């Protein structure tokens, strides 16, 4: 099973032929700039399309703190996204209060564990919209 750095490596090497379809869902690669290091950081994340946008969830498995990739995009919302063999720049933003219920429903339909993660933490798990630039 692919995970972490190995997932990123195989995804890139195969243009997503290995790594895009994962555990009955779909995965993209999100590259953020480290808010402290200034270095590019790439993370494989479950996603769904919503119109022209891509939606991801900053769950960190229900941990009490946000994932590092989310903190990075808070500091710099200009990111790079890879879906299969297509790589493009995007702007990341947190879903508005009006958008969130629909997008949360979309994401929990593709990964039901998101509801479990939400129950494990007191923080509201951010739903992030990636808008192609």
From TrEMBL:
Coiled coil: none annotated. GO terms for cellular component: plasma membrane. InterPro entries: F420H2_quin_Rdtase, Split_barrel_FMN-bd. It comes from the Bacteria. It catalyses: oxidized coenzyme F420-(gamma-L-Glu)(n) + a quinol + H(+) = reduced coenzyme F420-(gamma-L-Glu)(n) + a quinone. GO terms for molecular function: coenzyme F420 binding; oxidoreductase activity. Pfam families: F420H2_quin_red (PF04075). Belongs to the F420H(2)-dependent quinone reductase family. This is Nitroreductase. It comes from Sinosporangium siamense.
């Amino acid at each position: 099973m692919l995970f972490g750095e190995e997932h990123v490596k195989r995804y890139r090497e195969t243009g997503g032929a290995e790594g895009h379809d994962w555990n009955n869902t779909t995965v993209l690669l999100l590259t953020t700039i480290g808010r402290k290091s200034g270095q590019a950081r790439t993370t494989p994340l479950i996603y769904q399309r919503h119109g022209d946008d891509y939606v991801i969830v900053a769950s960190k498995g229900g941990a009490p703190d946000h994932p590092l990739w989310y903190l990075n995009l808070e500091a710099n919302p200009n990111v790079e996204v890879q879906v299969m063999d297509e790589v493009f720049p995007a702007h990341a933003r947190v879903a508005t209060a009006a958008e969130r219920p629909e997008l949360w429903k979309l994401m929990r339909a593709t990964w039901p564990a998101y509801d479990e993660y939400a129950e494990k933490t007191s923080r509201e798990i951010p739903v992030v919209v990636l808008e192609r630039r």
